[in-house]
Amino acid sequence: MPKKDEKSKQTGSYGAKDIQVLEGLEAxxxxxxxxxxxxxxxxxxxxxWEIFDNGRDEAMNGHATHVEVALLPNNRVRVADNGRGIPVxxxxxxxxxxxxxxxTTLHAGGKFGGEGYKVSGGLxxxxxxxxxxxxxxxxxxxxxxxxVHEQEYxxxxxxxxxxxxxxxxxxGTIVYFDPDPQIFKEIRYDWNRIVSHLRQQAYLVKGxxxxxIDARELPPKDIETDSFFLSESGLTAPxxxxxxxxxLLSLVKFYNKYxxxxxxxxxxxxxxxxxxxxxxxLQYVDDISARELAFANNTFNSEGGxxxxxxxxxxxxxxxxxxxxxxxxxxxEGFIGDDVREGLTxxxxxxxxxxxxxxxxKAKLGSVEARGxxxxxxxxxxxxxxxxxxxxxxxxxxxxxxxxxxxxAAKAAKDSVLRKGALEGLMxxxxxxxxxxxxxxxxxxxxxxxxxxxxxxxxGRDRRTQAILPLRGxxxxxxxxxxxxxxxxxxxRALIVAMGAAIGDVFDLxxxxxxxxxxxxxxxxxxxxxxxxxxxLFYRHFRxxxxxxxxxxxxxxxxxxKKGKDIQYAYTESERIALAGKDAPEIxxxxxxxxxxxxxxxxxPERDExxxxxPKVSIQRYKGLGEMNAEELWETTMDPSxxxxxxxxxxxxxxxxxxxDILMGTDVPSRxxxxxxxxxxxxxDV
Length: 686
What we know:
Heat Shock Protein 90, five-stranded mixed sheet, 21 helices, Ribosomal Protein S5, domain 2, nine-stranded mixed sheet, alpha+beta, 35% helix
């Protein structure tokens, strides 16, 4: 037995002195992901949403009409609202100003009860204080009761007491904050993401005006103004403003802008039951995808929750009851959830006084009472809608019946493919050159364009961890193709079998055979089209692959540049010019000759006698992966230590959905308009 002191040394001490007590907002800085989800782009933008939500909650309770978000120079954000203004009097418990309490204390706010707010998106009272804790600098300015009060902070700690700096006839709150570079490694705001989020919020609060301003490029001295709202100061900066009186009705029309409606009238209901306010709008469109957006107290719930469960239950039951009552469906088994949601665009919004989310990021609503309220309100109102609009109802039932028949056909086709695979011992497609490893975490598959590229990549790969699947031509556009038609495509079927995770309702991400699925197409128009078709396939039918971080796009070089014996690769036109120097600023037909090996050569100008000869510069333009030999392909595109891969991520699902509808759908006028309006952004290979 070891002696007592020896045992302590072996196990380490663990006593009261080892228990850490984090003061103030130190816990937030130590574990920021617990409060804002991550310290990446999502968390960075979450700071804006938290402060904006405070102003929006004022509007939801009838105290504000305008909220403004402004991006300022040096990564500063300014959020202003004309609500009541944060109280500045002394808090009875903390013995300091209520403003300081809210800005520097976790779980302090007016949203836990009492008469301050009837409904709010805030849950834990951590929004303003968390933003303050994760900012290198913050300032709160309150216009209230005739006075202007202000306080500044550094990384969550006050710099001085709240002080009165002037008088005012206005009311409201202005918050400035600079995200802390110690917390956020990259501070870069996405203008389109901010605009999209704030536009969505404007639909959710009828009559609320929301302004967003991008003043990042302006000199700071030009932004100093006495105006409460910068949008009213004559500031010359890119800006947008939103205000919608139609609420969710307008939002559904916005989402369906580029889609063909199945029925003319948009369903809409707004009603309160059991202290839960329910607002729902929906419309069916000629599409095979479903779009369900859920909000609780105007906070977007990306993972749904109880209100979505209640909506889906009522939707399926109501449509089945109506179809049977009116003899509109001959299908004895009835519709299931997948049938009634095909082609559906629906927005479900609930407002509750006492709300429960699952996690601080509020991705899923946990309030059980929301399910019953939504189910009751929607079932009753949608039933009336179908009875009062028989033509619209008939179109909806027809759409759903078609979805049911397609589901049966797709199931038969899928079962056939899976059954054949089982009978054949899950044989992999013959064109697949698989890797030796069976460890998915280290395995990767390159989806390449054509047999030529397939040949080079098979020779140049690392056979242990890299698999190659060549595709012939352009795959089926699956934007509007059902599962049975997809499975009839040899190329798509080969990809499904190669990935090993099946498809549809039996898709299982845990069975996927490669943790890096790399799309490698040629750098031309056809290659871009094939890449877009593949991205459409993954977005519509293998979304978990993208969400899991398994999908990538290879970045092969455009040029191979030789200077004497030195070889370098250029991935962009600017890199080519930088590497080739002024001797070969452009590739012109007259200055280019083909050598015996098929390599294009641009000769350097002759030098005067007596001067040192410059090495001859030769440039090869790669039109496709098939033009590279195995060694070049490995060095530039496949070698994990040297290659460049783009990871495919979805930062805005609604915007991504809209873009796929425009680019890959049947609405030709919308696609033409999109191409014309974005033509200047295109890089043409002519």
